[in-house]
Specification:
Helix content is 37%, strand content 14%. The chain is an alpha+beta fold. It has a two-stranded antiparallel ribbon.
């Protein structure tokens, strides 16, 4: 019977941690919250965390949105599939318009 009690205690602890603790952002669908920085968490410093410009239209594209394409060792970010397709058709035309990385 003590095994069942331990299991129930663990289950209650797990529920509260997922509901209110470190797992809360996962349960509620948030990308992250203060104090939990890391790759893909949505907070803190990350490599390439600065907003980039779409080389086709010049629109600012946040790092977790849009489309990306590697071209000649550099990453380009696009606000739409249409602009990605335009870039792929003529990369030499748009690659020179890339903002600082």
């Amino acid at each position: 019977m003590s095994g069942l009690g331990s299991l129930l205690l663990f289950a209650v602890f797990f529920y509260f941690m997922m509901r209110f603790g470190c797992g809360a952002h996962m349960v509620h669908g948030h990308g992250g919250h203060e104090g939990h920085a890391g790759p893909g968490s949505g907070t803190g410093e990350r490599v390439g965390s600065a907003t980039e410009k779409d080389p086709v239209c010049g629109m600012a594209v946040p790092p977790d949105e849009g489309y990306t394409k590697m071209h000649e060792g550099r990453q380009y970010r696009f606000c739409s599939k249409k602009h990605l397709d335009q870039f792929e058709a003529e990369p030499q035309r748009y690659a020179q318009n890339k903002g600082g990385m």
